């Protein structure tokens, strides 16, 4: 197996990681991670099965993950905001032999009971250990657990290298790129794409610690060339950029702006483009599949689309009977199914769930989408929460949300369905008002004019804010509850 991070062996003097005012070159990262890898291997006479990492957004977390990968030991990143019950389940399910954390960090009881090694940024590694083959487990990411306890998604080294190399192709990602981001480091977006991605390319990552438009402007006006963010971050940018020349100029000079983890509203796309000339690239992936599709750096940008399948990834849409949908029809909605080397190996300790997740070798994502004549995928929502069957029509919540966001009285919105004796389901809009509060009829008429009358909301509920998770995704089950 070739190294996951070849630059640890080849570019010693180049900056690999920067968090605030702290930097590590590739040589320093190799020493710190290599020395820690030796400690991991020494625990329990080398019989460490898995290591947990208390995944704060810090240099130490990055070093800990690289060390585990060098040691060939699967790493379980732990969200520092995790609740007691969920943490107890993750620790019981993954059974880590060791926990890695920053010195002085007080860990919750479920982790404090484990053997612990503090992560330091010094030490000499000597010769780096040989790495295992591509099917060896590398990272175990726990899903959100919306339909039961979180499941451990076992990601082999093969899936990580495949995804990152496909993104190299799609985004023309090189060792000269400097990635700017402020994402958490306990999931695919922030950790695998945002930390391991630049390291695999031999480039540099500048982590902001905490997102702010001021920090984004500073870093992109410096040597930053790319930015990764989630829609809540880009919404902040869209809100401020027209009146902030420094921010607009910094974004204008970036090579690539990428949004992921949830759909970026078309209205925010348009505001950013109007102020900067930049068109944000969207991509689509999941914990189980890593990255599936993306708008290419050299391809046409279609706001609201997540692009075309990445190199080596097969994507199909299927109807309710499981039959593939042929052709490109923006009105025909189907479930996305995926296969390729980017897929996970299994759900940890859940062979039943692993079997149920596949149909004839295709992973069933549960995401619903359309595909246009050019092969661009447009996601309309989750099968379980975002597809509304109303009056005989199958309606995607995302299309209605984008339409409502074009109304000046709507600052944020989520659309769901609820039972209706006549329609089967009626469309409900949960609205955070803008400067003025529109009437329910005004919003219904607005959607009917932009889309079609059967897609108008039948109920509008006004809120001060929408419930969101750590990645900024709206938690629609919380709204329904």
Automatic annotation (TrEMBL):
<dbReference type="GO" id="GO:0031956">
    <property type="term" value="F:medium-chain fatty acid-CoA ligase activity"/>
</dbReference>
<dbReference type="GO" id="GO:0006631">
    <property type="term" value="P:fatty acid metabolic process"/>
</dbReference>
<dbReference type="InterPro" id="IPR000873">
    <property type="entry name" value="AMP-dep_synth/lig_dom"/>
</dbReference>
<dbReference type="InterPro" id="IPR020845">
    <property type="entry name" value="AMP-binding_CS"/>
</dbReference>
<dbReference type="InterPro" id="IPR025110">
    <property type="entry name" value="AMP-bd_C"/>
</dbReference>
<dbReference type="Pfam" id="PF00501">
    <property type="entry name" value="AMP-binding"/>
</dbReference>
<dbReference type="Pfam" id="PF13193">
    <property type="entry name" value="AMP-binding_C"/>
</dbReference>
<protein>
    <submittedName>
        <fullName>Malonyl-CoA/methylmalonyl-CoA synthetase</fullName>
    </submittedName>
</protein>
<comment type="similarity">
    <text>Belongs to the ATP-dependent AMP-binding enzyme family.</text>
</comment>
<dbReference type="InterPro" id="IPR042099">
    <property type="entry name" value="ANL_N_sf"/>
</dbReference>
<dbReference type="InterPro" id="IPR045851">
    <property type="entry name" value="AMP-bd_C_sf"/>
</dbReference>
């Amino acid at each position: 197996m070739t190294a996951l991070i070849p630059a640890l062996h080849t570019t010693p003097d180049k900056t690999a990681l920067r968090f605030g005012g702290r930097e590590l070159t590739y040589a320093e990262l190799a020493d710190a991670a290599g020395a820690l890898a030796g400690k991991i291997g020494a625990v329990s006479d080398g019989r460490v099965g898995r290591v947990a990492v208390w995944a704060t957004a810090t240099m130490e977390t990055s070093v800990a993950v690289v060390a585990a990968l060098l040691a060939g030991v699967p790493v379980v990143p732990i969200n520092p905001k995790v609740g007691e019950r969920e943490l107890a389940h993750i620790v019981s399910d993954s059974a880590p032999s060791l926990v890695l954390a920053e010195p002085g960090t007080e860990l919750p009881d479920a982790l404090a009971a484990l053997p612990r090694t503090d992560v330091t940024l010094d030490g000499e590694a000597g010769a780096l250990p040989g790495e295992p083959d591509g099917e060896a487990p590398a990272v175990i990411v726990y899903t959100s657990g919306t339909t039961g306890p979180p499941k451990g998604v076992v990601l082999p080294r093969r899936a990580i290298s495949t995804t990152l190399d496909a993104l190299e192709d799609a985004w023309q990602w090189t060792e000269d790129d400097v990635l700017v981001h402020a994402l958490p480091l306990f999931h695919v977006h922030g950790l695998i794409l945002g930390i391991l991605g630049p390291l695999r390319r031999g480039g540099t990552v500048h982590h902001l610690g905490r997102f702010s438009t001021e920090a984004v402007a500073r870093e992109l006006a410096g040597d930053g060339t790319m930015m990764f963010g989630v829609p809540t971050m880009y919404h902040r940018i869209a809100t401020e950029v027209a009146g902030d020349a420094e921010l607009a100029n910094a974004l204008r000079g970036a090579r690539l702006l990428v949004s992921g983890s949830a759909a970026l509203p078309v209205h925010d796309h348009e505001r950013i483009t109007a102020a900067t000339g930049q068109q944000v690239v969207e991509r689509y992936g999941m914990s189980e599949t890593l990255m599936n599709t993306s708008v290419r750096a050299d391809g046409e940008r279609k706001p609201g689309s997540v692009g075309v399948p990445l190199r080596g990834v097969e994507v199909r849409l299927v109807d309710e009977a499981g039959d593939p949908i042929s052709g490109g029809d923006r009105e025909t909605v189907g479930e996305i199914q995926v296969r390729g080397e980017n897929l996970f190996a299994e759900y940890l300790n859940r062979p039943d769930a692993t079997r149920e997740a596949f149909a004839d070798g295709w992973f069933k994502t549960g995401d619903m989408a359309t595909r246009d004549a050019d092969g661009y995928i447009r996601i309309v929502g989750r099968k379980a929460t975002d597809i509304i069957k109303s009056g005989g029509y199958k309606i995607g919540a995302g299309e209605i949300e984008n339409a409502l966001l074009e109304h000046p009285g709507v600052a944020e919105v989520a659309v769901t369905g609820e039972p209706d004796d006549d329609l089967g389901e009626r469309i409900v809009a949960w609205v955070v008002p803008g400067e003025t509060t529109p009437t329910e009829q005004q919003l219904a008429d607005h959607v009917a004019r932009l889309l079609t009358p059967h897609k108008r909301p039948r109920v509008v509920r006004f809120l001060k804010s929408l419930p969101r998770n750590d990645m900024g995704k709206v938690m629609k089950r919380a709204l329904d509850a």
